[in-house]
Description:
Blueprint: E1 4-8, H1 34-43, E2 46-53, H2 55-58, H3 64-80, E3 87-91, H4 107-115, E4 124-127, H5 130-138, E5 142-146, H6 151-157, E6 165-167, H7 170-177
Amino acid sequence: MITKLIILDRDGVINHDSDQFIKNPEEWKPIDGSLEAIARLNQHGYRVVVATNQSGIGRGLFDMPTLNAIHDKMHKACALVGARIDAVFFCPHTSENNCSCRKPKSGMMEEIAARYNTSLTGVPAVGDSLRDLQAAAALDAQPCLVLTGKGMKTQAAGSLPEGTLIYPDLAAVVASLV
């Protein structure tokens, strides 16, 4: 059986975003319906992978143990509704580092493709910012914009990659897939 894969940005897709960054577990709050949407994906055979820029580390706003604690809270919240995130990929760098893994560059997506030994062609990649969609489009994944988080601003700004699908939230993305 071919594994079905979906790639989700974290802040603004799974949990509420903050212009001041999510800097501790207390600030991580799921968007209504997002964890249940992940559970539906799991029930329909999807591997759910998170790809998230976390420049707060590079900026010194929080450290790796804190990021791990935030992700631990996310995993536990998922488990409470029968959901599972298979892997979390993150870029700790700031844009000044000019790394290859920070979205909109495709390095993190390439890592995911290598880990799962698959092409990302057509794989849904859900984000709320233009850089999420650009990273997906670079590897022929299916860019999906959600209007939660920064999504409405992203839609209003335009210049979305060709073929970007637009949904009100993660639950609506999942409803279109399963």
